[in-house]
């Protein structure tokens, strides 16, 4: 079994993937780093179903949805002609605490630092604290936090630092400031395990179950007064609790959106499932297509 993640070794995705591999996937699992989320998902979707999975971040408590990932998953899930569900989907999600650290060569002086390298997510999670502690540093994006640490380790300048995990500092032999850099305490990222929908995952021994979620994307919501309200009213009428609602541009013109929503389906009995089915059918008769991106358990890493 292969599990693709955003590399190189030492990314937050690597930590989440190691956890997911141990707790959720059939053994043995080979962890394989790739340079971008697009590469990670493409490698998974190009594999014969059952041989490979991907572990990618989908949402952060400070920065919100990781749109690059949702867009790629949506593309894969809508590849099949509707209404047949796609082969691929989200199989599980794990919410993981995230700490970001300033990582540097021993002896770097904060006021002399002019460049800070990291993944855009990490730079955004630390924007304010970074400005306070490294007032002269210009943020520069690279493909991942561990890649940032690797690049700082590969040169001799003390004017460049990286934002990354403690583990990345250890892997690449650099020092770090032990006071975390993220702007809000309680920074967490939700990672999704993506694979063939028919795959059966293990019951995790060390993760806490928090919810069962159906992630849906609504396409073709009528552009008229009350169009979105009445689509949402269908869920309310079926007593279904929405836990996330976001709009995203389709890309072809201004003002043309799809809507992503998460529905809590924990504890739904047969009746609840059939009301979800009838919501989907009802929306279809009004011209709104509902694409399922997965129905999956959400866990929290307590450690
Ligand atoms: O660059 C990484 O380490 C990643 O795995 C992406 C990321 C960055 C920041 C928070 C969560 C995931």
From TrEMBL:
EC number: 4.2.1.51
Sequence ranges assigned to domain Prephenate dehydratase in this UniProt record: 2-196
A GO MF term: prephenate dehydratase activity
CDD domains according to UniProt: ACT_CM-PDT, PBP2_PDT_like
The reaction(s) this protein catalyses: prephenate + H(+) = 3-phenylpyruvate + CO2 + H2O
Gene Ontology process terms (BP): L-phenylalanine biosynthetic process
Record-linked SUPFAM superfamilies: ACT-like (SSF55021), Periplasmic binding protein-like II (SSF53850)
Gene3D superfamilies linked to this entry: 3.30.70.260, Periplasmic binding protein-like II (3.40.190.10)
Pfam families referenced in this protein's UniProt entry, alphabetically: PDT
Keyword terms, alphabetized: Amino-acid biosynthesis, Aromatic amino acid biosynthesis, Lyase, Phenylalanine biosynthesis
Pathway recorded for this protein: Amino-acid biosynthesis; L-phenylalanine biosynthesis; phenylpyruvate from prephenate: step 1/1
Any single GO CC term annotated in Swiss-Prot or TrEMBL for this entry: cytoplasm
Site feature Essential for prephenate dehydratase activity, where: 189
InterPro entries in alphabetical order: ACT-like_dom_sf, Chor_mutase/pphenate_deHydtase, Preph_deHydtase, Preph_deHydtase_CS
PANTHER family: PREPHENATE DEHYDRATASE P PROTEIN, PREPHENATE DEHYDRATASE-RELATED
Protein known as: prephenate dehydratase
Protein's organism: Alicyclobacillus sacchari
């Amino acid at each position: 079994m292969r599990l693709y993640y955003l590399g190189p070794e030492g990314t937050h995705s690597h930590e989440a993937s190691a956890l997911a591999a141990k707790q959720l996937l059939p053994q043995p699992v080979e962890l394989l780093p790739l340079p971008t989320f697009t590469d990670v998902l493409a490698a998974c979707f190009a594999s014969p179903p059952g041989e490979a999975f991907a572990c990618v971040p989908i949402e952060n408590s400070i920065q919100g949805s990781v749109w690059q990932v949702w867009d790629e998953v949506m593309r894969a899930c809508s590849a099949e002609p509707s209404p047949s569900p796609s082969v691929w989907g989200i199989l599980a999600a794990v919410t993981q605490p995230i700490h970001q650290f300033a990582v540097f060569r021993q002896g770097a002086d904060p006021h002399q630092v002019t460049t800070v390298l990291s993944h855009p997510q990490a730079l955004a999670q630390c924007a304010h604290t970074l400005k306070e502690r490294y007032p002269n540093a210009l943020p520069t994006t690279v493909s991942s936090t561990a890649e940032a640490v690797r690049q700082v380790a590969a040169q001799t300048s003390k004017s460049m630092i990286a934002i990354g995990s403690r583990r990345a500092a250890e892997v690449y032999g650099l020092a770090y400031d032990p006071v975390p850099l993220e702007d809000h305490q309680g920074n967490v990222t939700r990672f999704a395990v993506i694979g063939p929908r028919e795959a059966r995952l293990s019951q995790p021994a060390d993760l806490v179950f928090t919810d069962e979620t159906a992630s849906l994307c609504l396409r073709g919501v009528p552009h008229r007064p009350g169009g979105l309200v009445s689509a949402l009213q269908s869920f309310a009428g079926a007593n279904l609790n929405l836990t996330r609602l976001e709009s995203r541009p389709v890309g072809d013109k201004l003002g043309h959106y799809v809507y992503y929503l998460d529905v809590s389906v924990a504890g739904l009995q047969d009746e609840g499932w059939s009301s979800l089915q009838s919501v989907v059918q009802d929306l279809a008769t009004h011209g709104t297509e509902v694409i399922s991106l997965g129905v999956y358990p959400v866990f929290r890493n307590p450690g």
